[in-house]
Specification:
By secondary structure, this protein is of the alpha/beta class. The protein is about 40% helix and about 15% strand. It has one domain: TIM Barrel (Alpha-Beta Barrel), CATH 3.20.20.70. It has helices spanning about 20-30, 50-55, 80-85, 95-100, 105-120, 130-135, 140-150, 155-160, 180-195, 200-205, 220-225, 240-250; strands spanning about 5-10, 40, 60-65, 90-95, 125-130, 165, 210, 230-235. The structure holds 2-phosphoglycolic acid.
Length: about 250
């Protein structure tokens, strides 16, 4: 089954109001001629309105980087999936390793967030990935499988169709160290076979698994040519329109 690739730019805590709109405009210009893949950008919360406005009618989707699982309530500093959808987002990154590492996210909170996103029709981009110590001890597949088990608890086939997975080895994020295309493909294959053990084949074959961790214009084509790598979640290289556009182009 052929899966349309997805290139998603995670802007992290960069590009506040006033900076995000111009970057979105530049991305629109650079990417429109090379839309050989689906394209998403994930700005910080406060910049979502101006990015949504800049990208209206382009087909480029806007994602949030996080959400809270309740619809509303006394949760200072949080935003609900309802609010994120109302702001014009169609997708949301969930369980990024920086959130797991610095903000105490667990597979259990990640799972609640996946359910909350689906409740309002936001497509979750669910992130999994092992640390360097876990890889060095040979535990990488077991770690990722247990993140999948936790993150996807209670998710049925119909819902799985709306989920995108992102494999991001923690040791490759922002370090300039990418997993080799063989290492990445091996993990993506392991993820797909884990899913095959739990869900119907058709749904699993159409599910997209992105790779993330120091993806840039120089390594994107090789990574994206692997049979189970269906796109990229891009951090640093997504903050410049031309490098982001070259990654999108490499998905063709
Ligand atoms: P990076 O970040 O491309 O800067 O390594 C990727 C990510 O954290 O999603």
């Amino acid at each position: 089954m052929s899966r349309r690739k997805l290139i998603a730019g995670n802007w992290k805590m960069h590009m506040g109001p006033g900076e995000a709109g111009p970057l979105a405009q530049a991305i629109k210009k650079a990417v429109m001629d090379v839309m050989v893949a689906d394209v998403t950008v994930a700005p910080p919360y406060l910049s979502i309105p101006e990015v949504v406005a800049a990208l209206r009618h382009t087909g480029i989707q806007v994602a949030a980087q996080n959400l809270h699982w309740e619809s509303s309530g006394a949760y200072t500093g949080e935003l609900s999936s309802e609010m994120i959808a109302a702001a014009g987002c169609t997708q949301v990154i969930i369980g990024h390793s920086e959130r797991r590492q610095y903000f105490g996210e667990t597979d259990q909170t990640v799972n609640k967030k996946v359910h909350a996103a689906l409740r309002v029709g936001l497509a979750p981009i669910l992130c999994v990935g092992e640390t360097l110590a876990q890889r060095e001890s040979g535990a990488e597949v077991a770690v990722v499988e247990s993140q999948l088990e936790g993150g996807l608890a209670g998710i049925h086939e119909d819902d799985l169709q709306r989920i995108v997975l992102a494999y991001e080895p923690v040791w490759a994020i922002g370090t300039g160290k990418t997993a080799s295309s063989d290492q990445a493909q091996a993990m993506h294959g392991a993820i797909r076979s884990w899913l095959r053990g739990r869900y119907a084949g058709g749904v699993v074959s159409s599910l997209r698994i992105l790779y993330g961790g120091s993806v840039g214009p120089a390594n994107a084509a090789l990574l994206l040519s692997q049979p189970d790598i269906d796109g990229a979640l891009v951090g640093g290289a997504a903050l410049k329109a031309d490098s982001f556009a070259r990654i999108v182009e490499a998905a063709g």
